């Protein structure tokens, strides 16, 4: 009987030591500070399937650590507002009183609008390490990281008459080489299409078609796959 008791006690002691060993090896996740950090958008979630979708906009969000104000960018316009909650890494959070600049968004306008609509629907947050996820109830809406994504550059090849033209778009500016000169064309407002212009050239895009205007000449261009 004593032998059986000794064996049983040894077995239970072994289980206790194993449990302590496993607990001691469990990694401790250090959360990035929720407030005062610039959170960069990495994913939006499909509102119907809730699948994570990669984004093409450089949207960001900052929760002030002094007061209850927020600021950020939807990838085109800057915005400010207010927040409630955010008292822990897993709890209530909501946004209100938004106001923003009103620049014309020439690229990915729908994603910028979807981002702002999602922010207005947020009710919960979850912060785990370097990942901040915002929810509406138990439905994920947005995911952020403190590490800024690489800048998005859109590169497009056109055929203008018999000439190939390579254009890349970045920060509402078109960069192209024409007649052996590097041209930088800022975006300008246009009634239709998207228009870039400097004192020498005008480059005007609409869908897969474009027009290059220089020295009173108008050259039709077609986007190449």
From TrEMBL:
Stored PANTHER family: DUF306 DOMAIN-CONTAINING PROTEIN, HEAT SHOCK PROTEIN HSLJ
Organism: Thiosulfativibrio zosterae
Matching PROSITE patterns: PROKAR_LIPOPROTEIN (PS51257)
C-type lysozyme inhibitor domain ranges (all copies): 158-218
Pfam families from the UniProt entry: META, MliC
Positions of the DUF306 domain: 33-144
Gene3D superfamilies: 2.40.128.200, 2.40.128.270
Keywords for this protein: Lipoprotein, Membrane, Palmitate, Signal
Protein's name in the database: META domain-containing protein
């Amino acid at each position: 009987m004593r032998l059986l008791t000794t064996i049983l006690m040894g077995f239970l002691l072994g289980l206790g030591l194993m449990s302590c060993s496993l607990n001691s090896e469990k990694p401790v996740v250090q959360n990035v500070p929720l407030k005062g950090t610039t959170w960069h958008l990495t994913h939006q979630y499909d509102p119907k399937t809730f699948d994570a979708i990669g984004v093409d906009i450089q949207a960001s969000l900052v929760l002030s650590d002094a007061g209850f104000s927020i600021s950020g960018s939807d990838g085109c316009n800057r915005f400010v507002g207010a927040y409630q909650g955010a008292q822990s890494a897993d709890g209530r959070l909501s946004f209100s009183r938004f106001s923003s600049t009103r620049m014309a968004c020439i690229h990915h306008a729908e994603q910028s609008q979807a981002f702002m609509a999602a922010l207005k629907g947020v009710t919960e947050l979850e912060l785990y390490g370097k990942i901040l996820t915002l929810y509406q109830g138990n439905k994920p809406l947005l995911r952020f990281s403190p590490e800024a994504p690489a800048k998005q550059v859109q590169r497009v090849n056109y055929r203008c008459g018999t000439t190939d033209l390579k254009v890349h778009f970045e920060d509402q500016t078109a960069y192209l080489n024409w007649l052996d000169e590097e041209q930088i064309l800022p975006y300008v407002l246009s009634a239709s299409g998207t228009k870039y212009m400097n004192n020498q050239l005008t480059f005007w895009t609409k869908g897969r078609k474009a027009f290059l205007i220089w020295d009173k000449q108008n050259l039709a261009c077609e986007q190449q796959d």
